[in-house]
Amino acid sequence: HVRCINGKAAHSPYDDGPGHRHGWNAVWVPPHNDNTNTVDPPEPTLATLSPVGTTGDKQCGGCWYLIDACWGAGTTDKKSYEFQWKFNRSYFCTPPELNMLDHRPTQPEW
User: Which CB contacts under 8 angstroms, 24+ apart, belong to 56-62?
Assistant: First the structure.
């Protein structure tokens, strides 16, 4: 299960400005004992967002993982405005405590 999250990108944790429109995803990974993947995911809450330090091994017993494939793929050169491919692992399965530093969702549940 995948959810699209709309919001704004911030330049720093202290950036309360208007930001730029941005989107990223949340992916539900079911509990490790659910081999059928038929369980509908719960609504996102702090209890169901992936805690710091968890990975796909399901330490959290079923979690939403935050993923920003756009920022994780690379950056834009500030002078030429050309995209530069540079994989950044930190934007895949990002803990919510870190994601909120530069992502501002418009949906309150995220």
Answer: 56/29, 56/93, 57/32, 58/29, 58/31, 58/32, 61/31, 61/32, 62/28, 62/29, 62/30, 62/31, 62/34
